[in-house]
Amino acid sequence: MSLAAKELLRCPVCAGGWRTSDGVGRSLVCSAGHRFDAARQGYINFLTGRGTRFRPDTAEMVAARERFLAAGHYAAVAAAVADAAAPALTDDGRIGAALDAGAGTGYYLAALLSRAPGARAVALDLSRHALGRAAKLAGTTAVVWDLWRPLPLPDGAVDAVLDVFAPRNFPEFARALRQDGVACVVTPQADHLAALRDVLPMLDVPPGKADDVERSAGAHFDRVEVRSVRFGLELDPEAAADLALMGPAGHHVTRADLLSRLPHGPLQAEGAVDVTVLRRR
Ligand SMILES: C[S@@+](CC[C@H](N)C(=O)[O-])C[C@H]1O[C@@H](n2cnc3c(N)ncnc32)[C@H](O)[C@@H]1O
Ligand SMILES: [Zn+2]
């Protein structure tokens, strides 16, 4: 695990800075004495004792997400996100910092960091299972946190925020970003994976539209551009099951159920997302 990014964090209880680590880089103690220890899997849980009304992804859902993404089905989205956000981390010779909000396994963050050597990052998510993966990324501190609470980052700490199919807390994204920093938000277009919705009735198409993004970001951000990314997918039944299971359906159905409903041959579909690039005023 990495506490390399600890100066990108502040105490979630009192917003103070960190007094010390325990010398082996496995805990954070703030100036008021609030202490957070890293889990064996490398993430730090800042939500200790608070509970949350959300239901985090299970280990099986995370494994499905990791397999599906590792197979490259969304590689075009990762490339677009990295293209859009990398300049904010590398311009003017800086070695920048990023926040991935709702990072999941850190797939998109990994794409960004590969274009910004030495950059540091914070990955926030509710899912401990997902963050166990994200915590392995170089320079990254993975923190269990609820995006609807004040974020545990100091003002102006990061150069770029990624939000890929995750909740969007724009006032807090703006606060955590430096002036002129960039937020890169991915939302599905109306016809994203449309051909799969009949065969995968519980397919998760995360809600959101580029228009809504601009409207809700407007108080803090200027729109730079909206990039439409369209790409073909060919999914064998196992990959199609992973796609369904990595979303909320993973709480309700089993892989065996899904496979029994799917046709045997490959499924074709088109992915269609918007990558909205916003600049903090
Ligand atoms: C559709 S997934 C996207 C994950 C990742 N960005 C990706 O595309 O692979 C949504 C993610 O948001 C996380 N999430 C949902 N609500 C959240 C909240 N209130 N605070 C933090 N994370 C949240 C989920 O745990 C999940 O990992
Ligand atoms: Zn504190």
Number of domains: 1
Q: Report the C-alpha radius of gyration, rounded.
A: 19 Å
| Fraction of residues in β-strands | 25-35%
The assigned structural class equals alpha/beta
Query: Topology as H/E string?
Result: EEEEHHEHEHEEHEHEHHE
- pLDDT average, as an integer? 91
Return the CATH class: Alpha Beta
Q: What is the helix content?
A: 25-40%
What is the first-to-last residue Cα distance? Answer: 34 Å
Can you tell me the CATH architecture?
A: 3-Layer(aba) Sandwich
Bound molecule types? S-adenosylmethionine, zinc ion
Count the DSSP helices: 8
Largest sheet: 8 strands, mixed
What is the general shape?
Answer: globular
Spatial order of the strands in the main sheet?
Answer: 4-7-6-5-8-9-11-10
Number-wise, the strands total 11
CATH topology group: Rossmann fold
**CATH H-tier superfamily:** Vaccinia Virus protein VP39
Can you lay out the helices and strands and say which pair or pack?
Elements: E1 18-20, E2 27-30, E3 35-37, E4 44-45, H1 59-70, H2 75-90, E5 97-101, H3 107-113, E6 120-125, H4 128-134, E7 140-144, E8 158-164, H5 170-176, E9 177-188, H6 210-217, E10 221-235, H7 237-245, H8 255-261, E11 267-280
Parallel strand pairs: 4-7, 5-6, 5-8, 6-7, 8-9
Antiparallel strand pairs: 1-2, 2-3, 9-11, 10-11
Helix pairs in contact: 1-7, 2-3
Written description of the protein model:
With 281 residues, the protein is α/β, with parallel strands linked by helices. The chain has one domain: Vaccinia Virus protein VP39 (Rossmann fold, 3-Layer(aba) Sandwich), CATH 3.40.50.150. The chain has eight helices and eleven strands. It has helices at residues 59-70, 75-90, 107-113, 128-134, 170-176, 210-217, 237-245, 255-261; strands at 18-20, 27-30, 35-37, 44-45, 97-101, 120-125, 140-144, 158-164, 177-188, 221-235, 267-280. Strands 4-7-6-5-8-9-11-10 form an eight-stranded mixed sheet, sandwiched between helices. Strands 1-2-3 form a three-stranded antiparallel sheet, with no helix packed on it. It is globular, with a radius of gyration of 19 Å. The model has no long low-confidence stretch (mean pLDDT 91). It binds S-adenosylmethionine (SAM) and zinc ion (ZN). S-adenosylmethionine (SAM) is lined by residues 54, 56-57, 65, 102-104, 107-108, 124-127, 130, 146-148, 164-167, 206.
